[in-house]
Amino acid sequence: MTDRVLIFDTTLRDGEQSPGATMTHAEKLEIASMLDDMGVDIIEAGFPIASEGDFAAVSAIAKASRNATICGLSRANFKDIDRCWEAVKHAAKPRIHTFIGTSPLHRAIPNLTMDQMADRIHDCVTHARNLCGDVQWSSMDATRTEWDFLKRTVEIAIKAGATTINIPDTVGYTAPVESADLIRRLIAECDGADGVIFATHCHNDLGMATANALAAVEGGARQIECTINGLGERAGNTALEEVVMALKVRADIMPFHSRVDTRKIMAISRRVATVSGFPVQFNKAIVGKNAFAHESGIHQDGMLKNAETFEIMRPTDVGLTETSLVMGKHSGRAALRAKLAELGYEMADNQLADVFVRFKELADRKKEVFEEDLVALMRQNDAVEDRIRLKSLRVVCGTDGPQTADIVLTIDGTDHSASTTGDGPVDSAFNAVKALFDHNARLQLYQVHAVTEGTDAQATVSVRLEENGRIATGQSADTDTVVASTKAYINALNRLIVRREKTAPDHDTKGVHYRDASA
Ligand code: KIV
Ligand code: ZN
Question: Model pTM?
Fold first, then answer.
């Protein structure tokens, strides 16, 4: 028997907080359902006080939850805590998570003395505990907090009824030895430590988030806070897939286990990459496109003789199928449905009918359709309530420019056309969109990747737009790079329009993370 480590996923809170990673309501619900399905113990579903949208998402996730505990974040003040409880109370297993920055730099923001902060922690944890039987306390920036004061905050929180004590490395500053020692010492020296679970929450600023989280477990932590693909502010958080697979593969030296079904990792990783607009780097551990690819002759030869020569885990352990070549133009509907289910997409009949039409169009243009092509195809199925649609596009390119674009857009059901020039085909197409749908959005990011190999490969394009502090990311794929770019641009614009109508600017909700309000 090994010790169980609880997996606390914060993709929908800390992950979504990274600028540009905003997800829609439906996307958050879908990711929460996948997390619940794969055996995550606690899902931090959002920050209910941050916006009406966050509140609605946390409430809906709480109502739909099956096995996982649903947690909401709140600063250490009664108003935040009450709002958080209103959202999570619908869950079979609700949790209130409340925090304050305890390091000298963070104490200076609300300008509280140590005694005032100690009183605030006592009052807030007591208040939260009167509402909910499961309360998590976080001393934010714990790894840069003076030892005596950190110990004091932890003891107060335990005495006031906290059931989980989280020790965040908020700025990714600690190192493995220190991470283990800190937890070990807190457990050894804090009154009441044996009655609570200690959690570790690491950021990846120095690339040590996974190592620090695992070291904290060695030191006695029994909850790891993490995100899918390591999504999160700045350099991100501890990656769920990394800690879970490390515990599984190295059970020989780390006698701990989680309840996560690792075969569901790839599907959720792809889905989070799609809906957040943050692609996974090719050489990312566990979920990168190259994580199980063997290109060099020596490696391929070894792999053919015995897969263990160069592989410490099997691709199937993380949900990868043996080959990514899937289908061609003769494949039928049932095969498409089965393959999509394997990739994490459960389809209703009417959705499948639409996807099948587009699959056939793609199979006509491409000889072979790979898993990656299907994932790209599904991204276009995520259309928000689109006000703007691309009807047709013709771009003329040449060595002696300028490039011209003739475009027809359907805006709110009516067709509009424009002809514009630009510095290159993509620029001329973007100018054409602007000519028909006037806006002040600034292009923050434009990225093109080939989905597979070959000159008939689809290009998958990500576009990030910013307008008055609101950020939206759009994606699309097509065998024509300019068409993919234009569709991604329009997709980002459609999302921006939705955000304009429904939510406050990103800097209002995201900045709230570090601001403090009086209790
Ligand atoms: O990084 C951090 O300190 C946090 C806390 C709110 C737990 O995300
Ligand atoms: Zn964090």
Answer: 0.79
